[in-house]
Amino acid sequence: MYQKARNGVAAIRTLPLAALLREAPFVVICYLAYSFSKDLIHEAPVAVAFRNAWDLAHFELALGIFREAIIQRWFLDHARLVVYLADWFYTVGYWPVVLPTAIVLWWKRRDIYGQLRNVAFIAFVFVLVVYAVYPLAPPRMLPGFADTLLGLPFTGHHISGSGGSGRLANEYAAMPSVHYGLALIAAIGVFRSGGLLWKVAAVFYQAAMALTILVTANHYFMDILAAIAVVGLAYLCNEARARLVAGPLRNRWHAHGAHGHHAAGRA
What we know:
74% helix
């Protein structure tokens, strides 16, 4: 009976759903680490976050790309419907898109899923270090910007309070933009695995997310560029890891093949 029970447990573990659920701890660990990264180093992260925000604004001014307030004001004055849609897309276009995309890739293209999951995990490690060392207040907390998400249900603003120190969201984790980074990774997965229409949808999706985080004043231009850089660096690190792992395995395979060939020759 004990052996039958063990066989039953083993059979359950081979089910697709059980295998998929084993991926869940990655998401939980990353989210919890993200939520509590703000208090790891700085005793007064709020003051540091606002000082960094003003420094970044001056840096973007020097580069000539500090246009976030102008962009938001234009949409508020001339295309308020876009702002309304962006407010909702900020939430419903994030996890409700990223997670189903990951599940479909896991189901249909396990090779692409495995690579992008590793890239996302490595990127999160880099991101958490930056969040702990470099807290950054988002533009919506600065004068001249409107917090368009304030009070909207199902957003971090509604849960933790805009500009507050809520426990469910790190309000000062602006750079790099995880919103855009995960959207970019999901778009890459769809682009690589889908047909022409899906490729077009993937390009549109990541562009829409970039516009959304700017129109809602949740991120700076540099946050988007930093997210692209982090995803690229994570990809290179994952490729290097894969080569390091593949080397010993390839040598072991060749050694095993040579041994088998030698044994067959003696027989």
